[in-house]
Structure formats: structure tokens, C-alpha cells
Design goal:
Blueprint: E1 2-9, E2 14-15, E3 20-27, E4 30-38, E5 59-66, H1 67-73, E6 86-93, E7 99-106, E8 111-113
Parallel strand pairs: 1-7
Antiparallel strand pairs: 1-2, 3-4, 3-5, 5-6, 7-8
């Protein structure tokens, strides 16, 4: 099944094309970068799944979304410092045989996430 993500820019009502994202595996305070990528026109990883069924393991992970960089590249003028800079989502995978979809809904002022399908 694997791991995937999707980002929607709720202030513009569009996918967050061009946003930089990084995926890490975490073990307590130890953090390992697994991959970094830029979202495609659909607000998704251009390579598809972040981790495929064989690569997803039980454990803890972190997705880091460069929200400030994304809105800056759109030319949106925001107060400095930005309210949101990088959004980090720490989450656990208890069942590596299931699909974990971690979407982010974001504006310059707020974000939300959930375990999608």
C-alpha cells in the first residue's frame, strides 16, 4: 500500500504546485532524511508514492512542508516573520500493510491534516 501525501492551497483553492517537501524517518530525537521533492501541478509527489509497500515500515515519520517558501514564490506579500514557515507533521505507522495518506490543507494563516485514504 505505502505512504503518500497531497497538499491543497486553501487560500487559492488549488493544489500547492511547487511546494518543497521533505520526508524523514524518526527514532526519538534521531532524524533521517528519506527523500526531498517538489510537488507537481496536482500538489503531489511527481514520483507517486513516497514509500512503496516494501519500503514503508512500522515506526515514526515526519513530513516537512515549506509553506513560507511556497507562498513567497507565488509573490504573496506577507508580514515578516511569516506566521507559518515550515509545517512539520510527525505521525506514526502502526500497520505497514495499510495505505497511509497524509494530506495537508494550508493557507498563510492555518493548516489542517488527517489520515486520508
Amino acid at each position: 500500500m505505502g505512504l503518500s501525501t497531497h497538499v491543497l492551497d486553501t487560500s487559492h483553492g488549488t493544489p500547492a504546485a511547487g511546494m518543497s517537501v521533505a520526508l524523514y524517518a524518526t527514532e526519538g530525537e534521531v532524524v533521517h532524511l528519506l527523500k526531498a521533492f517538489v510537488l507537481n501541478k496536482d500538489g503531489r509527489n511527481p514520483e507517486g508514492m513516497l514509500l512503496d509497500n516494501n519500503s514503508l515500515k512500522v515506526g515514526t515519520y515526519r513530513l516537512v512542508f515549506d509553506v513560507a517558501g511556497y507562498f513567497s514564490q507565488l509573490g504573496l506579500v506577507l508580514p515578516e516573520p511569516n506566521f507559518l514557515n515550515k509545517v512539520s507533521l510527525d505521525f506514526g505507522v502502526a500497520h505497514a500493510d495499510q495505505h497511509y495518506h497524509v494530506p495537508l490543507l494550508v493557507s498563510p494563516w492555518s493548516y489542517s491534516t488527517y489520515r486520508g485514504s
